[in-house]
Amino acid sequence: MPHIELDHIGKSFGTTNVIRDFNASIADGEFLVLLGPSGCGKSTLLRMIAGLGDITRGILSFDGRRVNDWTPSQRGVAFVFQSYALYPHMTVRENIAFPLVMDAFRKWYHIPVVNTVMRWKLMRRADIAERTARIAEQLELTALLDRRPANLSGGQRQRVALARSLVRDPSLYLLDEPLSNLDAKLRTQMRAEISTLHNRVRKTFIYVTHDQVEAMTMATKIIVMNKGEIQQIGTPDQIYSDPANTFVARFVGAPPMNLLDVATARGTVSIPGGPSWGHEAAPENALMGIRPENLVLNPEGDGPIPVEVVVVERLGAETIIGCRILSDRRDQRFLDTDLVFVRVQGNPRIVAGTRYALSYAAEDVRWFDRATGAAIPHATALPNCA
Amino acid sequence: MTYLSRTLHALLILFLVVFGGFPIYWMAVTALSTNAELYNTGQVWWPQIGNLPMLLADLADVPLVRWLANTAIVAVGTTLLSLTLGALAGYALSRFRFHGKGVIGFLLFMTQVVPEALILVPLYAMFISLGLMNSLGGLILANVGFSLPVAAFIIKGAIDAVPYEIEEAATIDNCPRFGVLTLIILPIIAPSLAAAAVIAFFAGWNEYLFAATFLMDNTHWPASVGLASFIGQYETPLSAVMGAALIFSLPAVLFFLIIQRKIVAGITSGAVKG
Predict the structure, then answer these.
(1) Which of the listed CATH numbers 3.40.50.150, 2.40.30.200, 3.40.50.300, 1.25.40.10 matches domain A4-247?
(2) pLDDT digits (tens, 9 = 90+) for A243-272
(3) N- to C-terminal Cα distance for chain B?
(4) Does B169 contact A87 at a Cβ distance shorter than 8 Å?
(5) For position A336, what pLDDT does the model report?
């Protein structure tokens, strides 16, 4: 299994830089998720690792060997495409066996007509047939082996694509948004199946997605990207609990981290034109970040931040409450950026228009530099806010 | 579909069948008529099977089988060469980026604007220089010159519609570029290949102008030139001409019937969401 190093990797299309100076190290057996919004360069990076796209700058190495100029097959990778990229004229069995058949192909087998005969012959070779059947059984595709992709559901096609990537037993699996074409229920199921697969094969997985739920649930390590640059590298817990900047804070989490535009002075935090309250060690010129589940909704007057409920989203096991901080500011709009979100367990009787007060524990607050957006290292175990 | 629209639909199909099929029927009726009927007493409207021995006797001295074989060689040769080169050209035009790609595409297109008759004389000079006169191979080359650009454009259009990811998947699966074309792309675009094959085949099958100019020896004639040779200065045996023409058209009809299922499958394959 290769240890992958991306050393100052860059990619340009003409004068447009898509990826700038990307540095990362991916350990054996890791489940790395490249997470970022559409157009951030994560798929481009994955294609460069696969050998499907040229590397403009930098060095990509597998186990210390430079592989920039290696073909995809030399790199020994498996790639699962967003659109599955199954061969529509072949049956499921032929699709799964294709990589094995190609490995057994000699150059002269590619002569037209000879290629059809040899493919037919190789499909019947004992080792190829046995391995195809075994992989199909693992992914519950045995009953579908003689069907064509057009006669399969989205989930089944996805499993065929996975089976085709598994069959050659590669050392590196690259998955490019493989679940984005599935419905929500199937996505949850396939998420679990891919995680199980990773635990079973213990190979390196690099998974591209813009869905932070997929990233949080499957990854052992996440790289958050934006505009071709790394925003943060860390475990799912680190990414969620200690975002490196406001982009990560807002991108990861649903609803995202609340970023309050506060003024701080001498141990006091205040919303311009609104309430103020005590908060020790609050840095200056900083945005106050706090996750929705770390805010507590109290009866009116029983907390430092008076709010009015604007939106109530009942999700069954939990409820998301969008609140507006009561202030004298007249330019306040009912936009996401202005609302403070609170996550509460269960389905409490809360209605829009009711007034409450919010409180929080000081150690749950993360501070971000107002100018750069970078996280300010926080002191832990501070006393609760006044 | 209402009863009225079903009836109109059926009537329209019936009209098209009669419109398309009548010339073939009339060819059969004429072939089984006597020349006396055709020139003097008037033609009957139905085939007279009793005249079949007379027709066969008229055609007995004509090297029809040889002419048909020559036509088949030209048609099949034109089709195979056009599809082989057209697939390579279409793939290159669709997938590769290179200098002059637009110019090449334009020049290929321009070959369709130039009428065959216009290049007959220069081609004649070239054929003499290359020693291709009186050869079926030369005739195939001349035909390919006209059917290859059409085949290349049809194939290019079809390859454009194949998602590039499928090719990338094949590359990941250790399939070389030529294998991608022959094992993946060409089977996927089979309906378009069939359409290109029909065009190339009929261009070769119906070839007359080049054949009449470049083939002097009547053993090399395709059926089209052979049929034309029936027309004499004082007499044209119409029933024999029509009988030969009928035999000449049957293999072409058969070829189309075999291949049309592929074409229809191609037309309808995108209609239902997979």
Answers:
(1) 3.40.50.300
(2) 999 999 999 988 999 998 888 887 788 887
(3) 25
(4) yes
(5) 46
Confidence of residue A122 (pLDDT cuts 50, 70, 90): very high
Could you please report the per-residue DSSP string of A321-358? EEEEE--S-S---SSTTT-EEEEEES-----TT-EEEE
**This model's pTM is above 0.90:** no
Q: Which of B169, B182, B183 sits opposite A81 (nearest CB)?
A: B169
Inter-chain CB proximity B179 and A151 less than 8 Å: no
Q: Which two tokens stand for residue A54?
A: 């040229």
Half-sphere exposure of B52 (CA within 13 A, CB side): 6
DSSP A295-324: EEEEETTSSSEEEEEEEEEE-SSEEEEEEE
The answer to whether the beta carbons of residues A219 and A211 sit under 8 Å apart is: no
**B164 — contact with chain A (CB < 8 Å)?**
no
Beta strands A258-260; A286-290: pairing state:
antiparallel
Task: Quote the CA–CA distance of A288 and A270 in Å, as a whole number.
Answer: 11
Equal CATH topology for A4-247 and A257-376: no
Give the per-residue pLDDT at B90.
94
**The pLDDT value given to residue B35:** 75
Helices and strands per DSSP (H, E), number in chain B: 14, 0
Q: Where are the domains of chain B?
A: 1-60, 62-269
B188 Cβ neighbours under 8 A, 6+ residues apart:
A87, A88, A89, B162, B166
- Rounded to the nearest integer, the mean pLDDT of chain A is 89
Amino acid identity of residue A30, one-letter, is E
CATH placement of domain A257-376: 2.40.50.140
CATH number of B62-269: 1.10.3720.10
CB-CB contact of A229 with A256 (8 Å)? no
Amino acid at position A217, single letter:
T
By the CB < 8 Å criterion, does B173 face chain A?
A: yes
Domain ranges within chain A, ordered by starting residue: 4-247, 257-376
In this predicted structure, what is the pLDDT of residue A281? Answer: 78
